[in-house]
């Protein structure tokens, strides 16, 4: 899938990939799997950091919506027989409190062209196409790289002859690809589960709960479409899933689900400790050095005054 209006983004992604790979090639073999794995991890982290402000905006919008949930529920009960009035009142509430129901879509919309661009560029590299400013040397290096013995441009349905043309074993390549697809499926499920579980804890009466549960259980199936993707793209997807898991855990630990009193007012909740804090807490404390023994107090013996008769050298009277 190649969208002509995204050609500028394809070229930009290809150029950034080239710069990152050139950087790692200064101290690693340019054709090694390690150099290309680090290149893909680095560009994934760079992309996620680029859209990190959008993630914070999404989470802040979601948090605001959750805090307004009791008031929304009250409006739904009050105007349950007048859908139009109910929607107007809910939107007025959101508008008055500065909440945007569409704020959660921003990161998804931002990730879509990035994912399409990564897919297009890596797919072009896998097929040896010199597009988007990529040089012959750069494309050949990507096609020569192996990760755990599997060629970077290989996909699960590639024929044995094609896999062997990259200098790799067919069985080993299929096994590595199957493992990466399984990891991709698992991390996709965990990412969606983390988000859906949080949403259901905060809004148990959410009318979309059933759809969210269905989405959570079918999400791993989407990963199996990646059987037709090059290994490089699956590696990118696994990396971005792991980043998302860590990022969501970080935010949820610092922003626990809101709690409400009987009147629907938000009760402040103390942030939970993150994984890093738990690891630090469970780590055995460094043995404290025994306290230094106090130095013995030196008691100076004051010379006693002797009678004149006992003093040596005294003259007898």
Automatic annotation (TrEMBL):
<dbReference type="InterPro" id="IPR028055">
    <property type="entry name" value="YidC/Oxa/ALB_C"/>
</dbReference>
<feature type="transmembrane region" description="Helical">
    <location>
        <begin position="105"/>
        <end position="126"/>
    </location>
</feature>
<feature type="compositionally biased region" description="Basic residues">
    <location>
        <begin position="307"/>
        <end position="317"/>
    </location>
</feature>
<keyword id="KW-0472">Membrane</keyword>
<keyword id="KW-0653">Protein transport</keyword>
<protein>
    <recommendedName>
        <fullName>Membrane protein insertase YidC</fullName>
    </recommendedName>
</protein>
<keyword id="KW-0812">Transmembrane</keyword>
<feature type="transmembrane region" description="Helical">
    <location>
        <begin position="34"/>
        <end position="56"/>
    </location>
</feature>
<dbReference type="Pfam" id="PF02096">
    <property type="entry name" value="60KD_IMP"/>
</dbReference>
<keyword id="KW-0813">Transport</keyword>
<comment type="subunit">
    <text>Interacts with the Sec translocase complex via SecD. Specifically interacts with transmembrane segments of nascent integral membrane proteins during membrane integration.</text>
</comment>
<keyword id="KW-1003">Cell membrane</keyword>
<keyword id="KW-1133">Transmembrane helix</keyword>
<keyword id="KW-0143">Chaperone</keyword>
<feature type="transmembrane region" description="Helical">
    <location>
        <begin position="214"/>
        <end position="238"/>
    </location>
</feature>
<feature type="domain" description="Membrane insertase YidC/Oxa/ALB C-terminal">
    <location>
        <begin position="36"/>
        <end position="252"/>
    </location>
</feature>
<comment type="function">
    <text>Required for the insertion and/or proper folding and/or complex formation of integral membrane proteins into the membrane. Involved in integration of membrane proteins that insert both dependently and independently of the Sec translocase complex, as well as at least some lipoproteins. Aids folding of multispanning membrane proteins.</text>
</comment>
<feature type="region of interest" description="Disordered">
    <location>
        <begin position="278"/>
        <end position="317"/>
    </location>
</feature>
<comment type="similarity">
    <text>Belongs to the OXA1/ALB3/YidC family. Type 1 subfamily.</text>
</comment>
<dbReference type="InterPro" id="IPR047196">
    <property type="entry name" value="YidC_ALB_C"/>
</dbReference>
<dbReference type="InterPro" id="IPR001708">
    <property type="entry name" value="YidC/ALB3/OXA1/COX18"/>
</dbReference>
<feature type="transmembrane region" description="Helical">
    <location>
        <begin position="175"/>
        <end position="193"/>
    </location>
</feature>
């Amino acid at each position: 899938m190649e969208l002509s209006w995204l050609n500028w983004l394809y070229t930009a992604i290809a150029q950034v990939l080239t710069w990152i790979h050139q950087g790692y090639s200064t101290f690693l073999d340019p054709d090694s799997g390690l150099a290309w794995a680090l290149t893909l991890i680095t560009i994934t982290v760079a992309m996620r950091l680029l859209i990190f402000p959008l993630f914070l905006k999404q989470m802040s919008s979601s948090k605001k919506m959750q805090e307004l949930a009791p008031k929304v529920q009250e409006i739904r009960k009050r105007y349950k027989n007048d859908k139009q009035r109910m929607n107007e009142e809910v939107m007025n509430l959101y508008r008055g409190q500065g909440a945007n129901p569409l704020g959660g879509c921003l990161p998804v919309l931002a990730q879509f062209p990035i994912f399409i661009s990564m897919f297009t560029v890596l797919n072009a590299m896998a097929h040896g196409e010199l597009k988007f400013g990529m040089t012959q040397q750069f494309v050949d290096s990507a096609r020569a790289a192996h990760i755990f013995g599997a060629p970077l441009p290989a996909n699960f349905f590639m024929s044995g002859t094609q896999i062997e043309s990259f200098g790799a074993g067919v069985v080993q390549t299929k096994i590595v690809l199957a493992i990466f697809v399984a990891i991709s499926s698992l991390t996709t499920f965990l990412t969606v589960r983390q988000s859906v579980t949080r949403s259901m804890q905060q809004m148990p009466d959410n009318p979309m709960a059933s759809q969210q549960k269905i989405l959570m259980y079918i999400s791993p199936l989407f990963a199996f479409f990646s059987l037709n993707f090059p290994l490089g793209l699956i590696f990118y997807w696994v990396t971005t899933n792991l980043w998302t898991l860590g990022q969501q855990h970080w935010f949820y630990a610092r922003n626990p689900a809101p709690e409400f009193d009987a009147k629907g007012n938000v009760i402040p909740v103390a942030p939970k400790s993150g994984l890093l804090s738990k690891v630090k807490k469970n780590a055995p404390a460094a043995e404290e050095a025994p306290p230094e023994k106090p130095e013995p107090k030196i008691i100076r013996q004051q010379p006693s005054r002797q009678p004149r008769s006992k003093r040596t050298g005294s003259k007898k009277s």
